[in-house]
Design brief:
Layout: E1 3-8, H1 14-25, E2 29-31, H2 32-36, H3 46-57, E3 62-65, H4 69-78, E4 81-85, H5 89-99, H6 116-128, H7 130-138, E5 144-148, H8 151-159
Parallel strand pairs: 1-3, 1-4, 2-3, 4-5
Length: about 160
């Protein structure tokens, strides 16, 4: 496990798991949101984002936390391990609610309120995004793919490292 991606619905605990995995393994951690967003809630251009991501992926070791479907296939091609946090909707919505108002190392600002469009995306994730992810994962059977359905499975995995 040298090149790792962590994917799943927003609020599923990707960033929390990524930090714990980085602590256990010593692998450098990168958050896609930090590569894509500016502190003023604007985004970098598509080419700048891809250049930043390419720089990270040029390294010999990394953990990349985040979905960003537009670059997921690229990341799957380059990684050796995929962690898919396949959590129930209720867990993801609770995760989003719990992080409001807290400074996070995976975002360049503190969320104070929840964007309705974002919540709609999360509510639709299992119907719209999850099938695309599962299909993509099926094409990379040479990768080590580990799916977690609950936090107990994550804790058990981390305890074995």
């Amino acid at each position: 496990m040298k090149k790792v991606i962590i994917i799943g619905c927003p609020g599923s605990g990707k960033s929390t798991f990524a930090r714990a995995l980085a602590d256990k393994t010593g692998l450098p951690l990168y958050h896609l949101d930090m590569l894509y967003w500016n502190a003023d809630r604007t985004t970098v251009g598509r080419e700048e984002f891809r250049a930043r991501l390419a720089e990270v992926m040029a390294g010999d070791e990394w953990i990349i936390d985040g979905n960003y479907i537009s670059t997921m296939q690229w990341r799957m091609e380059c990684c050796d391990t995929v962690f898919f946090l396949d959590m129930p909707l209720e867990v993801c919505l609770a995760g989003i609610e719990a992080r409001k108002g807290k400074k996070r190392p995976d975002m360049p600002w503190v969320e104070q309120e929840t964007d309705d469009e974002f919540i709609d995306f999360v509510r639709a994730f299992n119907v719209e995004s999850r099938p695309k992810i599962v299909e993509m994962l099926s094409k990379y059977n040479s990768k080590d793919v580990i799916a977690f359905k609950n936090y107990g499975e994550i804790a058990e995995f981390l305890g074995k490292i």
